[in-house]
Amino acid sequence: MAKVVLAVTRADNEVSAFLNGLMVYDRRTDGDPTLDDVVALDDYLIQGLNTLVVLGINWGGPANFQGSLTIGSVTQPFSYQAESTADGIAMVQTYVIPA
User: Fold this and answer.
1) What distance in Å separates the CA atoms of residue 62 and residue 11, rounded to the nearest whole number?
2) What are the two backbone dihedrals, phi and then psi, of residue 60, each rounded to the nearest 5 degrees?
3) Domain count of the fold of the chain
4) Rounded to two decimals, what is the model's pTM?
5) Scanning 31, 33, 37, 75, which has the fewest C-beta atoms within 10 Å of its C-beta?
């Protein structure tokens, strides 16, 4: 069972995640569907501190990004909603993961 897991439940319009600069997740959607995307990150971790950056990208109009990062037994949710944003990055969530 994975010790470090990224879960994405909403991505209006796109969520990308980078672990130590490597893209480990990218999902583009139309509208605002409910997702059940889960990515185990253990295989990508390096010894020491790791940096995970989660980007919520909106293509205009409403934005909705939701999910969580679980490290061991601790879950840290992320969430961002807006009635309207400019095109581009609307949310940035950064995590430091010890390994």
Assistant:
1) 11
2) 100, 155
3) 1
4) 0.95
5) 31
